[in-house]
Amino acid sequence: MNDPAPALRPALRPSLRNNAFHSTYLADRAGHATISPESAVEAGSFASLTLVYTAGYFGIDDTGSLKVVHRFASDMGRLQFADPAGWNYVSAEASNGAVLELRFDQKGNVRPWDKTLLIRVQRGFMREGDTITVRLGDTRGGSPGLRMQTFTEATFEFKVLVDPFATYNYIELPQQPTIAVLAGPPVGWKALLPTARRAGETFTLGFKGEDKWGNPSHLAQGRYTLRASLPVAGLAQAFEMRAGQLAQRFDGLSVAQPGELRVEFLDAGGRVLCVSNPMRIVAQAELLPYWADLHGQSEETIGTNSARELIEFARDTAFLDAMSHQGNDFQITTPFWEHLNALCAEYDRDGSFIIFPGYEWSGNTGLGGDRNVLFLAEGRQIHRSHHALVEDLSDLDTDANNAGDLFDALADEDCVVFAHVGGRYADIRMSHNGRTERSVEVHSDWGTFEWLLEDAFESGYRVGILANSDGHKGRHGASHPGASLFGAYGGLSCLLAPELSRRGLAEALRRRHHYATTGSRVMVEVGARFARETLRYDEDPQLGECATHEVREAMMGDIVRHDGGAVEFWCAISSGAPIERVELRDRMEVIETLRPYAEADLGRRIRILWEGSEYRGRGRQTIWDGTATLEGNRFESATPINFWNIDKKLERVGHDQLRWQAITTGGFGGADIVLGDARAGSLSIDTALVKARLPLAGIGLHDTVLDSGAGIRRRMRVFRLPESNPHRAFSFTRRLELESGREHALYVCVTFEDGHLAWSSPIYLVP
């Protein structure tokens, strides 16, 4: 047999090197695809798009097929073929009359292009020039169209692959059809300040309008005025937003005297659009708070938009102080790793914006689960968990296939590691190294995972508490979950550091001088005072000998010697939202629940909450669809809490019933209801997991807990609140008599009325 023509050899080789990827065999003969209309669509809107595939030289043989795929991260509506009047109806027809079979599979293609419309030529075949017309959101039968993804992307790609030979080895078309997904008009406004700075120091104020899905809107143009609670040097009294502008930064501001600063933004008619978070101006401070999202991905791995766009969003639209790109290691090629490092070097600026080079070590759950690695310098070796989606195997010997191997590989590196719960969860009981792994991430877009902290305590580890986004939608530092399987708004970590630099923030991470929130920028301070001098350890003494210092006080994250007796614990909180409660905890035990109001302040307002998750893995979503019905009373109002997916609604049915669709993934959601009468009648709750009838007179300050009997903290809670809660600042001191002979970990978990949470890192008191 003759050798293939030399011109064909280069095209054949790539398909033979690694069968994890699509064939590149004669891609220029595979046909082409177009989409119409080409105009931009609004995020979360309905659209009707027509994709036309024209067969190439080989056509498509009998039982061959097309795949039209889109990214895992996209929350575009689930395609369906059964109901022509329903959402997301799709049809397809061949120009030559061939019979087509349509199927949708959430994971029908190679990651990250998981979501797959499969169009099989079931009877017949296609010749060159024949077409397949796919109507995505076919409105001819009454469908409103295809519900587009809820977040912005300049080049949303409908990637088309063809199997012309009926071998199920697909060829990716060289040119792919794309459309632009843009934000809608602003429906909410945000103003963001640092949470503390020294008097006279410069700082930045940020302002933006967001559409109903949390996208910064390019349609926020207009004239705005500002009103500050303190004199601010350099702050204009009014400014203009241009059409197309996503956010406004006010740099170089300063306040001369100590106090608390809040800034109001007003529209041209004098209406207050938003008020910034509070910012404390202090005379002196050794450490200052810097806000970070240390975990997010871009389109080069599993996310959306480029790594450069992700960084610029974090800096210019989310107004972060620090970040890290954390792509799944098994998708990071060597060229992309080099590109990421170059981007980090380009954008990292001491005193302005810090970016850590890093990656997510994504080992299988049984081999340790997800870990996040942050380096302090560029050019370090990436130790992947595996090479499943990296074709170049030349550095296979650098892999760390399990978490123990990872910690060994990083033993001499200048880096920090924290444990993460995503699709996989970190099994820190199986593997942990306190020298490198300093913290656990208890919240992200995936949900809330206090059980990871419980694992650490039960294993005797001394860890700090972080929260980040692990955002996949290109909104690093302001990560709205949209309408996908993500069940929570992305978290933030506040790092208490001597300076804004990699070294300064790494010191905060290593000393656990940080606290976590579910996305709000609040001030949380905790400390402990001792009756006599004790020793503070510079390192965890479990790791070996370390330097010590005699102290009378400790801050969050410190490890101090204390063998029982009295400790004075103090806490101070300041926020933009009212404070609902503060739990003072020792490890997972709640020592005391404190509220800034008393039982005498309670009124007609009742809060109904649902929370928890199915289990630790990917299928953790818990469905809470249900109703609440009053007998002998009426609902005057109902306000949703943490309804991040606006497709899932809280609705009033008449005056005596609420109906909702909701999910949780470890965190909580719910409703605030105001009753016509504070105590009359009863409340009946009906969900698949919890059913109960509660006399309203019996609902008070403390939680009525309705347990589902399964899952992880899967339950409902009902309690009463003041009709108005003005308390946005709260402080307390408690004298605690601690048991001798055992270790204590003192910290707070704060719940705010807007549905956000905050956790301080523990103060560890060791015998």
Structure keywords:
15-stranded mixed sheet; mainly beta; 57 strands; 42% strand; disordered N terminus; single chain; 767 residues
Helix content: under 10%
Shape: globular
Uncertain stretches: 1-20
Which structural class do the helices and strands define?
mainly beta
What's the total number of strands?
A: 57
What is the overall pLDDT average? 95
Strand content: 35-45%
Oligomer designation: single chain
Largest sheet at a glance? Answer: 15 strands, mixed
Radius of gyration: 28 Å
Q: In whole angstroms, how far apart are the ends?
A: 81 Å
Q: Please, how many helices?
A: 6
Structure overview:
Helices cover 8% and strands 42% of the residues. It has 767 residues and is mainly β. The chain has a 15-stranded mixed beta sheet that branches. Strands 28, 29, 30, 31, 32 and 33 form a six-stranded mixed beta sheet that branches. It is globular and about 90 Å long. The N and C termini lie far apart (81 Å).
SSE map:
Elements: H1 9-17, E1 32-36, E2 41-42, E3 46-47, E4 49-54, E5 65-70, E6 90-94, E7 99-105, E8 115-123, E9 131-136, E10 146-147, E11 153-157, E12 159-163, E13 171-172, E14 178-182, E15 188-192, E16 196-198, E17 203-210, E18 222-228, E19 238-241, E20 248-253, E21 259-261, E22 263-266, E23 272-275, E24 279-282, E25 288-296, H2 307-316, E26 322-325, H3 334-347, E27 354-356, E28 358-362, E29 370-375, H4 403-409, E30 415-419, E31 437-444, E32 447-448, H5 450-458, E33 464-467, E34 492-497, H6 502-510, E35 514-517, E36 523-537, E37 548-555, E38 559-561, E39 565-574, E40 579-586, E41 589-594, E42 602-613, E43 622-623, E44 626-631, E45 635-641, E46 650-653, E47 657-660, E48 663-664, E49 668-675, E50 682-687, E51 691-695, E52 704-707, E53 712-722, E54 729-738, E55 744-752, E56 757-760, E57 763-766
Parallel strand pairs: 2-14, 16-24, 25-26, 26-27, 30-31, 31-33, 38-57
Antiparallel strand pairs: 1-4, 3-10, 4-9, 5-8, 5-12, 6-9, 7-8, 11-14, 12-13, 15-17, 17-20, 18-19, 18-22, 21-24, 22-23, 25-34, 28-29, 29-30, 31-32, 34-35, 35-56, 36-37, 36-38, 36-39, 39-54, 40-41, 40-55, 42-49, 42-53, 43-48, 44-47, 44-50, 45-49, 46-47, 50-51, 52-53, 55-56, 55-57
